Amino acid sequence: MEFDLVIRNGRVITSRGEISADVGIKGENISAIEKDLHGRDEIDAAGMLVLPGGIDPHVHLQMPVGETASSDDWFTGTRAAACGGTTTVIDFVEPEPGDSLQAALEKRKAEANGKAVIDFGLHMTITNAETRTLSQIEGMVNEGVTSYKTYSTYDGFKLNDAEFLQVLTTVHESGGIVLVHAENDAAIAYLKARLVAAGKKDPAYHAVSRPAVTEVEAVTRALALAEVAQANLYLVHLSTAGAIQAVRTAQTRGVHAFAETCPQYLLLDERELLRLDFEGAKFVCSPPLRSAIEQPEIWEGLADGTVSTVGTDHCPFFFKGQKELGRDTFTKIPGGLPGIESRLALLHTFGVRTGRLSLPRWVDVCSSLPARIFGLYPQKGALEPGSDADVVVFDPEKKVQLTRSKLHENVDYTPYEGFQLTGYPVITITRGKVIHKDGAFTGAAGSGRFLFRQKGDYGS
Ligand code: URP
Ligand code: ZN
Ligand code: ZN
Q1: Quick one: average pLDDT of 386-415?
Q2: Residue 103: per-residue pLDDT
Q3: pTM above 0.85?
């Protein structure tokens, strides 16, 4: 068979293991994985790893926050993702008061269409448990939206326990999964008020106002409520050892709970918030960066299966003009870090090369498991005949010193400035087309499509 494109001589890494083979692509799909394939175009991947494209299950592109918005739009953000080896992102729909879920979904899709350079899915945010909201969920599942984001904190977003139970039940009955941002709202409000009253307004107090126990408590409670409702639960951006332990215990009891962490909780710690001249604001996100003491347990959870995915929670704000909105008090600093571009490479250097993660586990947490949990597998997250030809050629020996100017994110800093990496994506292919080569973006705005997602694989 003549292929359109063949990636030859690489080490093909999937979540199932490793083989030496060529990857044959016809049109937009993988067609064969065998030895000695030939095609119209060929890429020599000798010495390279060949992986399914990364799937980032947690990003916030052009997300309104107060008087500003996250600084990567659907073009710049997905371009950065592509240059970092990510070929699918899942972002969020945040319905405005009065909007139906359907109308909000259409608005968000319209923002992405014509701009996104890689395929994208959307989680639906649910901010109340009114009958008129819950009754729309079944319809959303039929629109390819099978995951629902909830918050236990943030005014205008937070659900109480009774509301959370209702959402868990409705989503479960429609075959979907609930995501939760779990932090104890009352404890945070209490601590924030006391800090501000005492004049403690520097960026470092952001972390003091949201101590580890506020996450551990809310995660433990969310797990208990999922157990009561016998529903599927996905805990976003876990940052504490205590939360990982709570998830592990719940999973042992049979709760269908999945945990996500992010590179920032594995690699950065709260000392960054102490940087002088307000530079600590660059590291303000929620949950906050923690003590480095928390990190070994999170790595352990990633390795042993307690933690299923690494998302980025990419939510960039320029230091100049955006983070600076909080110069007079940390409560006004827009929360979020950039990171959409560096996830695969960071996890390779600090996960694979340190021996914490095997190559297949790296692919699993960065690609295959997000695809399985969010109803995209094996269209995405796999290298199998019939899968979308979303492929990354990754040079495991390439040395890169991370610096803002090398990245494509639309923001004036990277929290990983100066990080020394070994291993970097050199080619990114989406649906059969090379859209990134050696740091240069070669794709086109609007080539990404909305992904109609199936019900996920939640275990049985
Ligand atoms: O501070 C963060 N993480 N901002 C993004 C929104 C969220 O809570 O995930
Ligand atoms: Zn969150
Ligand atoms: Zn987020």
Answers
A1: 98
A2: 98
A3: yes
Q: Are 55 and 381 in contact (CB under 8 A)?
A: yes
Q: What is the pLDDT of residue 459?
A: 87
**Is any ligand 1 atom within 6 A of the Cβ of residue 150?**
no
Tokens standing for residue 147: 């995951």
- Tell me which long-range contacts 270-274 makes (C-beta under 8 A, separation of at least 24): 270/204, 270/207, 272/415, 273/203, 273/204, 273/206, 273/207, 274/204
CA of residue 98 relative to chain centroid, distance: 28
DSSP conformational letter for 158: B
Which atom of ligand 1 lies nearest, measured to the CA of 58? Answer: 9
Distant-in-sequence, close-in-space partners of 233: CB < 8 Å, separation ≥ 6: 168, 177, 178, 180, 222, 223, 226, 255, 256, 257, 258
Query: Which residue's CA lies nearest to atom 2 of ligand 1?
Result: 336
285 lines ligand 1 (CB under 6 A): yes
As a whole number of angstroms, the distance between CA 70 and CA 68 comes to: 7
Q: Which of 192, 221, 440 is nearest to 329 (CA)?
A: 192
Stretch 151-158: mean pLDDT, rounded? 97
Predicted confidence at residue 1, as pLDDT, reads: 76
With a cut of 80, say whether residue 460 has pLDDT above it: no
**Å from CA of 25 to ligand 3 middle:** 34
To which residue do tokens 């008061």 refer?
Answer: 97
Query: Domains in the chain, please, with CATH?
Result: 2-51+381-397+420-441 (2.30.40.10), 54-373 (3.20.20.140)
- Looking at residue 244, its pLDDT comes to 99
- The whole-number pLDDT of residue 238 equals 99
pLDDT in tens, 234-259: 999 999 999 999 999 999 999 999 99
Distance CA 152, CA 405 (A): 37
